[in-house]
Write a structure and sequence with these properties.
The protein is α+β, with helices and mostly antiparallel strands. The chain has 25 helices and 13 strands. Strand 12 and strand 13 form a beta hairpin. Helix 10 crosses helix 23, helix 11 packs antiparallel against helix 14 and helix 11 packs across helix 20. The N and C termini lie close together (about 5 Å). The N terminus and C terminus are likely disordered. The protein binds flavin-adenine dinucleotide. The site of flavin-adenine dinucleotide (FAD) has 19 residues, from strand 1, strand 4 and helix 14.
Length: about 700
């Protein structure tokens, strides 16, 4: 193996040290050269991470330029203008067409669209979010819920940005409880129009992207109401297209928008509130795929149950959720790559023998902070690729998915969003800390990533709510009528399910069998054995699920309030089961990617990363494994020691690993990586004791 030292510290001279007698900064010599990793190995690893849409990634990389980076120091209005101009550039490049079907004027490449959205996460999350609102959410609602006529009327302008729009679902009083939102769309048979109203202050649409300034139309989610024989009939949540501003940007009659102004991040996106007061739209404004109203005001739907209809509608909109998870993963990889690069050039304290500064990554603690996160970044990138591929397959041929496969995909889309956005927020913060004071300087970009990524844990489904959804779905895995279940019914249903669900599902996969067959050291249940790792994770998930189902059994026969009490007291348990499921699901996707890798050296390194991913989970949850007699103290101690060893081993390859993220080089053109903010570079070779010497 080539060690990082070989390539990081070329012996050719770079910038020279100050001449004798010149004032020397006390930090001089602690910043070394930035160097590079093992290009051949990183290319082989990149191939695994690039996955099916490698060509799209390459094309997107080539079209990325420094002016697409999050601009620092602009006012809010300037930032909004900047992002809008960049959005127009993306539109002109044809990128949005990827996400729309050919019959609607697109190129029908869902995987390509999601991949290119993801890559914007390396540059400016405001741009990613603005693109997501316009094409993923607003355009996505029209594409997935609208009929052919509506799609033909609006989608070309949505792609070209001649029509900027909002996705107006959230209400200030309702938030995550979307099914009970209050905005109404009441059909007026006399005029053949829907009347849109915000009936109470809590029904005001809030936080809506594009609502403060740029949006001209909104896809508004409202309770649909018709009348029959004087009686009011409520059909649940539907989506209607409602114009909100004229060409000059003035609110239309009956519409009041307000600007949220400065937020905790994403300054380039104009989020605002919308209030509707008797706004009339034609009957055709209803996106009627799952529910239509004829001229006489008669409602019809292919799905009878209000709940099932609602969940089916939401299911068609999961793309936004998938791209939010993917882009936050890209942001995390960017921050990690910066922190790793910095840890190789920044030296702190002198080595007792050589008297030379020690690179940060030489320190065990620094390795423990960064390397498990690098391992997770690989794992999540592979899992994210898998969910994108699944969604792409589904959109190409929806009929090939039965009900349970579709629900499973939706569950994993929710779970991976919660998992990766939480990881991204944790990782960006750790990367910022790992870069010390330099990490806190806006010019070095990590703080900007942190501010912008923060809300990714909240929008497109709050992470707690989504993880709970994963847990509930696991419990009701075999229910065919879950869409109609309320909390109490879910509890009751859980009594009859859960047992063996996880094992059965996992065992159904060929990978499982392959791994279990490959267990070489069953007696000693080696923690580095892939089959044992899978069993360890799946067993934890299964146990959590079985025991939460048992706890929920107490709700049987109880009224709503008592059943809620039981459910609520077990909520942490259910969430734990949801997280455990995502851990094993991600592990399986990562292991599949490792298994499929054809390059022997890359496969070996990926195998180590996969081990580190599992050991990191074991380390974080060792209390559970001990409490439940799954691991002895000797084995958890051994796991910690093995984790440390892997951290050190992989630290010797750190630069190569983050180079495999294939982030455009201009992203790293920041002061802390170019001159450390204190001095010019030296090209002094590292000594053997340094990180790179530990590679093999
Ligand atoms: C910058 C930004 C942009 C947005 N853009 C849009 C947009 O374009 N369109 C749109 O429709 N919406 C948008 N949203 C809204 C976003 O989707 C919501 O903020 C999100 O759904 C959460 O709702 P909430 O803010 O009301 O939080 P709440 O649902 O009130 O949650 C508050 C807290 O309570 C917790 N919580 C909630 N329910 C439960 C439960 N059952 N059990 C335990 N804990 C719970 C949550 O974890 C959270 O910590 C945006 C939000 C932001 C901040």
């Amino acid at each position: 193996m080539t060690s990082e030292t070989d390539v990081q510290n070329p012996t050719t001279s770079g910038d020279s040290a100050p001449e004798n007698g010149a004032p020397v900064h006390p930090n001089f010599g602690r910043i070394t050269t930035t160097g590079a990793g093992d290009a051949v190995l990183s290319a082989a690893l990149q191939k695994v991470l690039d996955g099916t849409w490698a060509d799209t990634r390459e094309f997107t990389r080539d079209s990325m330029t420094p002016d697409m980076l999050n601009p620092i120091g602009l006012t809010m209005e300037e930032h909004r203008d900047h992002v809008l101009a960049q959005l127009q550039r993306l539109s002109d490049s044809g990128m949005p067409k990827l996400g729309f079907r050919e019959e609607d004027g697109g190129t029908g490449d869902t995987g390509g669209a999601l991949t290119s959205f993801e890559m914007l996460g390396h540059l400016d999350l405001s741009l990613m979010v603005k693109a997501g609102v316009q094409w993923g959410l607003f355009g996505g609602a029209i594409a997935n819920l609208g009929n052919a006529e509506t799609r033909a009327k609006y989608l070309p302008d949505v792609m070209s940005l001649d029509l900027l729009g909002c996705f107006a679902m959230t209400e200030i009083g309702g938030g995550s409880d979307v099914q009970n939102l209050e905005t109404t769309a009441t059909y007026d048979r006399e005029t053949g129009e829907f009347v849109i109203n915000t009936p109470t202050p809590s029904a005001e649409k809030a936080y809506i992207g594009n609502a403060a300034r740029d949006g001209r139309m909104a896809a508004v989610f409202a309770q649909l109401i018709t009348h029959e024989d004087g009686e009011e009939l409520r059909h649940g949540v539907h989506c209607l297209l409602v114009p909100i501003r004229d060409e000059q940007g003035n609110d239309l009659p009956g519409v009041s928008t307000t600007d949220h102004g400065h937020k905790g991040g994403l300054l380039g996106v104009d989020n605002g509130r919308i209030w509707f007061s008797g706004v009339r739209v034609p009957r055709e404004a209803l996106l009627d795929r799952f529910g239509a109203v004829d001229e006489n005001g008669t409602y019809s739907s292919p799905i009878e149950s209000v709940g099932a209809r609602f969940f089916t509608m939401l299911g068609t909109l999961i793309r936004g959720r998938v791209s939010v998870g993917a882009a936050s993963g890209a942001a995390a990889r960017t921050a990690l790559a910066m922190a790793v690069r910095y840890s190789l050039v920044r030296r702190q304290f002198d080595h007792p023998e050589t008297g030379k500064g020690i690179p940060l990554l030489e320190y065990r603690e620094h390795q423990r902070r960064l390397m498990p996160r690098v391992a997770r970044a690989f794992a999540y990138a592979c899992a994210q690729n898998a969910i994108i591929a699944e969604l792409d397959r589904f959109e190409q041929d929806p009929e090939s998915f039965d009900e349970s496969q579709r629900r499973e995909m939706e569950t994993h889309a929710a779970g991976i969003k919660a998992t990766v956005t939480a990881f991204a927020n944790d990782t960006i913060t750790e990367a910022r800390l790992a870069c010390g004071g330099a990490g806190y300087m806006a010019e070095n970009r990590i703080t900007e990533l942190r501010k912008d990524c923060d809300v990714f844990s909240t929008f497109e489904g709050d992470n707690v709510v989504l993880t709970q959804l994963v847990g509930k779905e696991l419990l009701s895995a075999y229910a065919s009528d879950f869409g109609d279940m309320d909390q109490r019914e879910t509890v009751a249903f859980a009594l009859n399910t859960a047992f063996d669900v996880v094992q059965e599902k996992a065992r159904a996969s060929t990978l499982w069998q392959k791994m279990v067959d490959a267990v070489t050291d069953r007696e000693h249940t080696d923690l580095l054995d892939r089959g044992n790792q899978l069993e360890l994770l799946v067993d934890r998930e299964e146990h959590l699920l079985e025991t939460v189902a048992r706890r929920l059994r107490k709700a049987q026969g109880q009224d709503g309030s008592a059943a809620f009490k039981v459910f609520n007291s077990a909520q942490d348990h259910l969430l734990q089961a949801g997280r455990a499921h995502m851990d094993s699901w991600v592990f399986a996707r990562f292991a599949e990617a490792v298994d499929a890798c054809e390059d022997p050296e890359a496969k070996e390194v990926l195998g180590m990363l996969c081990d580190l991913y599992v050991l990191d989970i074991v380390d974080a949850d060792k209390g559970w494994f001990l409490e439940h007699n799954r691991l002895t103290t000797e084995r958890t101690k051994a796991a910690t020691a093995a984790r440390n060893r892997l951290c050190t081993k992989l630290a010797g390859r750190a630069r190569t690993l983050v180079d495999a993220f294939a982030i455009p080089e201009f992203v790293f053109d920041v002061p802390m990586l170019t001159d450390g903010g204190v001095d010019t570079l030296t090209d002094e070779p590292a000594d053997e004791h340094e990180v790179a010497g530990l590679a093999d």
